[in-house]
Amino acid sequence: MSRSFAFRVLATDGAARRGEIAMPRGTVRTPAFMPVGTAGTVKAMYLDQVRDVGSDIILGNTYHLMLRPGAERVARLGGLHEFARWPGPILTDSGGFQVMSLAQLRKLSEKGVVFQSHIDGARHEMSPERSIEIQDLLDSDIQMQLDECVALPAKDKDIEKAMELSLRWAERCKTAFGDQPGKAMFGIVQGGDKPVMRERSATALAAMDLKGYAVGGLAVGEPQAVMLDMLDVTTPLLPAEKPRYLMGVGTPDDILKSVARGIDMFDCVMPTRAGRHGLAYTRRGKVNLRNARHADDPRPLDEESDCPAARDYSRAYLHHLVKSKEALGAMLLTWNNLAYYQRLMQDIRDAIAAGRFEARAAEMSEGWARGDLPPL
């Protein structure tokens, strides 16, 4: 087990990369999907299950954890790993996105952002330094810089202002983070849907010589084609020897197309949120268990899956649980979805190693396009 933070590329296939990130708490196989554990839990899952389906790393949310139960309390209780009983690596976001999207009466300045909690209206301040301090208290392994993320579409002047502020905050976060052996701080490329601004942001961040880089401000309402265009501009400018993380993405198709453009890490609430709302991801595409067509169907979601939730329970039973709003329905479908996402990532890693990523991606896409089994 590594005592330092280290990334290495093990194989390439076009721009797609298979690699690994070594950290004291474990090794992350890339391309990697990080289940979102917003408040110290991956919703509707035991963390032992999250590990068993193949997850090497999970994500925690600085904004939510600072509000409840409080970063200082988590630190007194041994840090987020001990608190949540997750021994592997944890990445924490900076809290910036949630401040912009959830908080009430927020006020942004060069210093940081002052906001009111969406929970109780209490006033809080979040500066780049405070964001890193909170992430230190949580004892996360990968920490993100505080940035300003604008929703698209947006005016050029607003995109540029947010991008430039994010660069200045990245410098302050780097100073606040200092030298922490075995841990890393990632910078975040901003610039909206403007190629020239993405280029400026990526070039400036690369010059800071950080341990990793994220692409932020995408999957925020723009078409997939715009996201991919921005990746085409951005990833070639990021250091090839550092990991690249596309924040908040996404669908299986988003992941395939982003891996093809050199992305190594992903996170998204989609598989867990979908599971809580009756939607299953499978190799045949999405299956809506709310649909009455499943009410008398004794077949499983996927008879070839190695996940018991997909293989051992009938569609009729899953439909019944969803329609009855039983907690077990959300648990089983979330289990299925996270297992599917981790199988997807393993298939991608294997395909890159074998030099057949493009062919395997085409096979997956064809399976989704064919769709689910016909009704009995």
Offer a quick outline of the entry:
The protein is α/β, with parallel strands linked by helices.
Tell me about this structure.
The chain is of the alpha/beta class and 376 residues long. It folds into two domains: 6-267, Alpha-Beta Barrel (TIM Barrel); 275-369, no CATH class. Helices cover 41% and strands 20% of the residues. It has helices at 47-52, 62-67, 71-76, 80-84, 96-101, 128-138, 156-177, 195-207, 224-234, 252-259, 270-276, 308-311, 315-323, 327-354, 357-370; strands at 6-13, 16-23, 26-30, 32-34, 36-37, 58-61, 90-93, 104-108, 113-116, 123-126, 142-144, 184-189, 212-215, 244-246, 265-267, 279-282, 285-288. The strands form four sheets. It has a nine-stranded parallel beta sheet with strand order 4-15-14-13-12-11-7-6-5. The chain has a three-stranded antiparallel beta sheet with strand order 1-2-3. Helix 7 (156-177) packs parallel to helix 8 (195-207), helix 8 (195-207) packs across helix 9 (224-234) and helix 13 (315-323) crosses helix 14 (327-354). The chain is globular, with a radius of gyration of 20 Å. The mean pLDDT is 96.
